Amino acid sequence: MGVEGCTKCIKYLLFVFNFIFWLAGGIILGVALWLRHDSQTTNILYLQLGDKQAPNTFYVGIYILIAVGAVMMFVGFLGCYGAIQESQCLLGTFFTCLVILFACEVAAGIWGFVNKDQIAKDVKQFYDQAFQQALMADSENNAKAVVKTFHETLDCCGPDSITGAGALVWKDDLCPKKDFFLKNLIENSSCHRKIDELFSGKLYLIGIAAIVVAVIMIFEMILSMVLCCGIRNSSVY
């Protein structure tokens, strides 16, 4: 005979929350893998200008997400099994893992908030260097190929509308379309703006997922402690 009454309800509630937590871990792992292999980011962040590689700060965050998603799936399974078996040892281990995960998530959130603008800034600086070198008639490195990859991937031209349009007058092979002169002026399709949109959209998605997971973790920590106390006070262990 196991726990009864409200404690039994908490047991199954914790199981449900852990299943959601396990599922959220799988979703985060899937999203992280998608971001890692997304054609836009891979096309840009795998570029190399001479001996200089494109900034990899974004990928550092992605690898952290992959690790977090995998650990969440393991911890979620541990919580589900511990709740069903009514094991204080497993629930205690589960609670400890949650505290560690929560602390890591807070640390990662602070790191992400501090570096959220730096990622786009580094990529824009990398693009600007390639763009300036590509405009040089005697450029012998792969700057032109790097710039064209940016333009074709992001459907943009130039660091800003004026510079991009000016480049088209005598370097029209840098941009993907013949009619980009007017489009660049009318729609303001600068690469700086496109880079900001690319990374801000992905970071926004990551931020929402982190908030949802944090709320679930808080509920699980509370429920696991209540269930542990209920099991300890029960006549059957």
Automatic annotation (TrEMBL):
- Tell me where in or outside the cell this protein is found: Basolateral cell membrane; Membrane
Query: Its GO biological process terms?
Result: adaptive immune response; regulation of cell population proliferation
Q: Could you tell me one molecular function GO term of this UniProt entry? A: lipid binding
User: Does the entry annotate any disulfide bonds, and if so which pairs?
Assistant: C156-C191, C157-C175
The membrane-spanning stretches of this chain are 12-35, 56-84, 90-114, 203-227
Which PROSITE patterns does this entry report, sorted A to Z? TM4_1 (PS00421)
One Pfam family, please name it: Tetraspanin
GO cellular component: a single term: basolateral plasma membrane
Cross-referenced InterPro entries: Tetraspanin/Peripherin, Tetraspanin_animals, Tetraspanin_CS, Tetraspanin_EC2_sf
Record keywords: Adaptive immunity, Cell membrane, Disulfide bond, Immunity, Lipid-binding, Membrane, Transmembrane, Transmembrane helix
Which topology term describes how it sits in the membrane? Answer: Multi-pass membrane protein
> Does the keyword Cell cycle feature in the UniProt annotation?
no
Major subcellular site: membrane
Instruction: Spell out the family assignment given in the record's similarity comment.
Output: Belongs to the tetraspanin (TM4SF) family.
Provide the protein name: Tetraspanin
Say which species the protein is native to. Brachypteracias leptosomus
